[in-house]
């Protein structure tokens, strides 16, 4: 039966060509959009993770309550013990201690008096002992001049702040901030390079230094504001992050202690819950839209095909073929057409998705004045879902279209079939 239907589809192109083209185009667009949305939304989530939240974040409960203020008086202590313990308990994550801070940056003149001042916000990363953080945050892409810190006491400044203060590479600047114990902290740095992110909120006043320098500057010996965890798969998986956070928090017994540890997943920080849910549900919305749109098109195509094959159906019914059998054969044809169209559409969709994944689309010029942190190169991302998601609208739409258009078979009156054939 299947072989018979397949021969009919291949030999009579007039009844299969248009549906296959429609299905192929719809499936190709579905596959490409799924990979594109997964890539663009996923990259935006990853940027937030790399710069601020991590996939999960470990901090004290008091720090979490005032996280927007970066209260380092509630920072993590004994990091040299805590970080190895996290690496042992959760080997599926890569852990990175960071110090978040804000303060005033002072530029002295040749007499040691203030020449320029500006507000600054920044972070301390492991820069001298490892390049992992530089690679994770893609800082090489934003290095505008100079180089990364090679020795203690060197700092990177945002390009706009650097220019506003009239600095040159090698100049000394003084960070004035609040220490971990509530005291005033002052520390001298030498500017070794500048960064240009293309994002106003960062370019106006941002600095990055090695975490050990900031521990000295802010009296935070063996401490960190937070420890970020990154899944080794390379991208955020909400369910896994939620499970890790839940298991970690269950082990914490002193929940009333403001210095007790707390782990949060990315989706529970910075209002990211809606964005993560939106990214997860978008692919299903794409499938639903294309199933409905393609079903309508194929329904109309089926009605036109039914008119063209009116005599064929009448003859098959007249010689004794059951209406149910005829209807089932139409469904079989629809499934085969849907399968053929889906295979073609998935192949082309994967091709275009791969090209978008490899080369991307540079939108850097469009984001010059943006206040949103997102990648300047938009890329697709091919996942396991990309390989099968196109078959859902491809087969379902042809089946639904054939079911709707084939209802007319049951309205044919057997008694008048021979009279119709005579005419």
What does this structure look like?
It is a single chain. This protein is an alpha+beta fold and 423 residues long. The protein has two domains: 2-46 and 275-422, no CATH class; 56-235, no CATH class. It is 49% helix and 19% strand. It has 15 helices and twelve strands. It has helices spanning 2-11, 17-53, 61-65, 79-89, 132-136, 159-164, 200-203, 211-217, 238-251, 273-308, 310-318, 323-359, 384-388, 391-405, 417-422, and strands at 56-60, 93-108, 114-125, 143-146, 154-158, 172-178, 184-195, 206-210, 226-231, 261-265, 361-362, 377-378. Strands 2-3-8-5-7-6 form a six-stranded mixed barrel. Helix 2 runs antiparallel to helix 14, helix 10 (273-308) crosses helix 11 and helix 12 packs antiparallel against helix 14 (391-405). The two termini are 31 Å apart.
Spell out the blueprint of helices and strands:
Blueprint: H1 2-11, H2 17-53, E1 56-60, H3 61-65, H4 79-89, E2 93-108, E3 114-125, H5 132-136, E4 143-146, E5 154-158, H6 159-164, E6 172-178, E7 184-195, H7 200-203, E8 206-210, H8 211-217, E9 226-231, H9 238-251, E10 261-265, H10 273-308, H11 310-318, H12 323-359, E11 361-362, E12 377-378, H13 384-388, H14 391-405, H15 417-422
Parallel strand pairs: 3-8, 5-7
Antiparallel strand pairs: 1-9, 1-10, 2-3, 2-6, 2-9, 4-7, 5-8, 6-7, 11-12
Helix pairs in contact: 1-12, 2-10, 2-12, 2-14, 10-11, 10-14, 12-14
């Amino acid at each position: 039966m299947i072989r018979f239907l397949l021969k009919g589809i291949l030999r009579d192109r007039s009844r299969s060509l248009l549906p296959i083209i429609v299905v192929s185009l719809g499936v190709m667009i579905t596959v490409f959009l799924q990979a594109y949305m997964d890539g663009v939304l996923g990259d935006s989530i990853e940027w937030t993770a790399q710069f601020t939240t991590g996939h999960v974040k470990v901090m004290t409960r008091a720090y979490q309550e005032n996280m927007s203020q970066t209260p380092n008086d509630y920072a993590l202590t004994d990091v040299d013990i805590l970080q190895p313990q996290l690496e042992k308990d959760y080997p599926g994550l890569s852990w990175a201690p960071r110090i978040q801070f804000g303060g005033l940056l002072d530029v002295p003149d040749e007499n040691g008096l203030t020449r320029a001042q500006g507000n600054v916000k920044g972070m301390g990363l492991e820069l001298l002992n490892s390049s992992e953080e530089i690679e994770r945050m893609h800082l090489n892409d934003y290095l505008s001049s100079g180089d990364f810190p090679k020795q203690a006491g060197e700092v990177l400044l945002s390009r706009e702040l650097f220019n506003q203060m009239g600095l040159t590479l090698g100049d000394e600047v003084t960070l004035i901030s609040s220490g971990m114990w509530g005291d005033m902290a002052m520390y001298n740095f030498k500017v070794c390079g500048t960064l240009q992110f293309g994002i106003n909120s960062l370019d106006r006043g941002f600095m990055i230094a090695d975490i050990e320098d900031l521990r000295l500057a802010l009296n935070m010996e063996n401490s960190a504001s937070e420890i970020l965890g990154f899944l080794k798969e390379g991208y955020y998986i909400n369910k896994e992050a939620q499970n890790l956070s839940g298991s970690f928090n269950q082990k914490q017994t002193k929940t009333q202690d403001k210095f007790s540890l707390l782990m949060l997943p990315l989706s529970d920080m910075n209002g990211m819950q809606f964005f993560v849910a939106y990214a997860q549900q978008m692919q299903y919305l794409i499938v639903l839209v294309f199933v409905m749109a393609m079903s309508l098109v194929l329904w109309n195509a089926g009605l036109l095909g039914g008119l063209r094959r009116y005599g064929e159906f009448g003859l098959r019914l007249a010689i004794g073929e059951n209406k149910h059998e005829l209807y089932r054969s139409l469904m079989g044809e629809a499934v085969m057409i849907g399968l053929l169209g889906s295979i073609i559409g998935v192949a082309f969709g994967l091709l275009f998705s791969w090209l978008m994944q490899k080369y991307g689309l540079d939108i850097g010029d469009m984001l010059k004045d943006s206040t949103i942190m997102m990648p300047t190169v938009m890329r697709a991302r091919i996942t396991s879902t990309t390989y099968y998601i196109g078959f859902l609208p491809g087969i379902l739409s042809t089946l639904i279209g054939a079911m709707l258009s084939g209802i007319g078979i049951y309205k044919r009156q057997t008694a008048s079939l021979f009279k119709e054939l005579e005419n």
